[in-house]
Design a protein that fits this description.
Blueprint: H1 11-30, H2 39-63, H3 80-96, H4 108-121, H5 125-136, H6 160-185, H7 196-208, H8 210-221, H9 228-248, E1 258-259, E2 271-272, H10 281-297, H11 308-314, H12 319-329, H13 334-351, H14 360-366, H15 372-383, H16 387-398
Antiparallel strand pairs: 1-2
Helix pairs in contact: 1-2, 1-9, 2-3, 2-9, 3-6, 3-7, 6-7, 6-8, 7-9, 8-9, 11-12, 13-16
Length: 399
């Protein structure tokens, strides 16, 4: 006879079910409306729904609701090998606006495992009862049952925890390497200011990085699946942290910021930040990547007569769109962008032994400034040092 236990609703159960609800909501959010046009959003939406499905099974098992829903026992294993690749796809697509080459091969283990899962999902209730109590309540007696079929044709189910850990570890590392590569390609500090797409990929990867470690600790500490509620609770925290990241980057939830054009010809009247964009998110991300590559490869900022229209023409876009993206995505004006690149170039010249003979005015001219005073002002604002003080500091450090 199959025994049951009373429902357990404690803090962990509450956190898990709360995470499931938020994960489903956020997954649907990314898969609907204009957001679904973004490849990265579709990957992330599917990832969140997969996470929620696994968390729901853990919540039902931990709370003992599973005694009343034996048909759902072990259904979460269908998603074990889809979870990590989907996350990697999200990060890759967010940074590159496409999936990795031969992406379908990454999902092959998930497809094989889904077929294998049929052998333990399509089983009598008594079989599922035994599976459940073996994982969560080993103190209860098993019941006799004749399975409909052999429950594991691959012979790998006994190693599911180790294989899941390996999958999560591999794809988390691949995601982190992709983030590092993107920041290096854009010549940006990993922990500094960057385009929104890069910040989102970096921050979400940072949230997920501890998950494989936690899997290893929990599985080494607890019998079978008895510690899975810790994993589900951590996933809840990552889902809500992701929700905060989404809210922070949503222009609909931000106050309209006032941006002042610093150009000499600008009006004294401030202008409001652009309220709507004619560009899709993917086009914006593509334009930002093109901008980073152009600035690094051709260094147009060294031209003293570079203007917003000229830079927009090189990027095959309009000055309006370029200015809007700089303001909304990088929180910079066109002149802030020029100053950051020019000052960085000046720092390299001030450090280079082959250019120590150059006067400060000559360096200012080399990096695109016609006015030495404008160069001094920009350099001091960005480094808190004058060019002469910066050069003296470099000499002192080398001495």
């Amino acid at each position: 006879m199959m025994q049951t236990l009373p429902i357990r609703l404690d803090l962990f159960a509450f956190l898990i079910f709360l995470g499931v609800a938020q994960g489903v909501f956020l997954g649907i959010f990314f898969l609907t409306g204009q957001r679904r046009k973004s490849l990265a959003n579709r990957c992330f939406g599917l990832y969140l729904l997969s996470v929620s499905a696994i968390m729901l099974e853990i919540g039902l098992e931990y709370s003992n609701y599973m005694f009343q829903m034996l048909a759902l026992v072990d259904y979460g294993e269908l998603f074990n090998f889809a979870l990590a690749p989907l996350f990697y796809f999200f990060v890759y697509a967010k940074l590159n606006s496409r999936l990795p080459r031969h992406w379908g091969w990454h999902l092959l283990p998930a497809a094989i495992w889904s077929v294998n899962a049929i052998t333990w999902i399509v089983q009598p209730p008594e079989f599922k009862y035994n599976s459940y109590i073996n994982a969560f309540h080993p103190e209860l007696p098993f019941v006799h049952v004749e399975p409909y079929m052999h429950d594991d044709f691959t012979g790998l189910r006994d190693y599911i925890n180790e294989l899941t850990l390996l999958s999560c570890l591999i794809y988390t590392v691949l995601a982190l390497l992709e983030v590092r590569k993107a920041f290096k390609r854009a010549n940006l500090p990993l922990l500094g200011k960057a385009p929104v797409s890069m910040v989102m990929a970096r921050n979400v990867s940072a949230l997920v990085i501890l998950f494989p470690v936690l899997i290893g600790v929990v599985k080494a500490t607890y019998h079978e699946d008895m510690g899975d509620h810790f994993l589900a609770a951590y996933l809840t925290l990552t889902i809500y942290a992701t929700s905060l990241l989404v809210m922070q980057r949503s222009s609909a939830l931000q106050e309209k910021e006032i941006i002042v054009d610093e150009s000499p010809s600008a009006s004294v009247e401030p202008k409001k930040k652009y309220e709507k964009s004619a560009l899709s998110e993917e086009l914006e991300e593509t334009l930002l990547l093109k901008l980073n590559r152009l600035m690094e490869a051709e260094k147009p900022y060294l031209e003293s007569d570079l203007s917003l229209p000229k830079l927009a023409q090189r990027l095959n876009t309009t000055p309006h769109h370029l200015s809007q993206i700089l303001n909304d995505r990088l929180a910079q004006s066109f002149f802030d962008l020029l100053a950051s690149y020019r000052v960085r170039e000046a720092q390299q010249l001030l450090q280079d032994p082959t250019t120590t003979h150059l006067k400060i005015e000559e360096i200012a001219e080399r990096v695109g400034y016609n006015s030495p005073s404008a160069f001094h002002t920009a350099f001091k604002r960005l480094t808190n040092l004058t060019p002469a003080q910066y050069r003296a500091k470099v000499v002192e450090q080398k001495a």
